[in-house]
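queue> holo job accepted (NAP)
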Amino acid sequence: MLGRTLQRELAGHEIVVADLPEWDITKDDELVERMTSVSPDVVVHCAAMTKVDDCEAKRDLAFKLNEEGSRNVAMACKACGARLIAISTDYVFSGEPPREPWAWSETDIPRPRTVYGASKYAGEQMVQMIHPDDSVILRIAWLYGAGGPSFVHTMAKLGADASGAPLKVVDDQRGNPTSTKVVADVVKFLLTRPDVSGIVHGTCEDQATWYELTLELKRLLGDRFPRAVVPCTTDEFPRPAPRPRNSALKKSVLNVLGYRTPPWRAALADFVASEFGPTA
Ligand SMILES: NC(=O)c1ccc[n+]([C@@H]2O[C@H](COP(=O)([O-])OP(=O)(O)OC[C@H]3O[C@@H](n4cnc5c(N)ncnc54)[C@H](OP(=O)(O)O)[C@@H]3O)[C@@H](O)[C@H]2O)c1
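queue> job finished
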């Protein structure tokens, strides 16, 4: 999903779309060979095992893709002298903030509680060990983008069913809903700053719960979202992987560099207009 938006938003650059089956991040030798033949200036590494609950059931595969895959991408970048922008996640944090209000900073120590989060954190560490001087770990969260699949697409579909019972949506998990377009803009900014390396948080500003996000989507879609929405707790929707209670990210590095991401409501309004048509 993110790769598709990057492809569109970076159209002014010379791009190589590196995707399965030709480009497999688990095949280390092949990856070095392919990357050397292309000789990129920058690699934006979006490939991952992203289904959080599946990762709990398939731990080995999650680490093979998210840890070893990222190691292989980092080694290939190092081998051909490419800068690496590696996409990571808010799930590296425990989601249990010491106090509220709270947002996790780039300097906070990750303590993942899921296999997905642990495997992505292991991938971050690989990148930082192998290619420390010319890599950025770009942490993003609560992503939606053209074509989906995403929470926003699911809710837009469920919300269209006027005859359905009120939609119950979790109201005790907080994060930063973020569009792939906003992430692409952060990537574009990072391309103008080759001097930046290390961890960068790149989500939208302001926090929301899933319920608040759904209410805003309902407002924007107007009569295309006739179904009622009611808040509920995490306990009412048990999942294999525990969800963070608060995984909002502080954009300390971007802000120091003078860059501000938009508030999530503005980014959502832009997205709804482009994906579903004019907003209400
Ligand atoms: N979605 C979110 O809410 C969210 C939040 C925080 C961070 N992120 C991170 O953002 C990045 C992009 O996520 P996304 O939402 O765009 O996920 P996505 O649509 O699932 O994209 C991941 C891509 O990786 C590909 N892939 C899987 N195994 C591969 C392999 N061995 N070699 C090469 N490619 C492989 C997948 O291909 P197949 O589809 O064919 O398997 C898929 O196209 C990921 O690093 C993810 O961890 C996402």
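queue> Residues 2-276 form a domain with the Rossmann fold fold (CATH 3.40.50.720).
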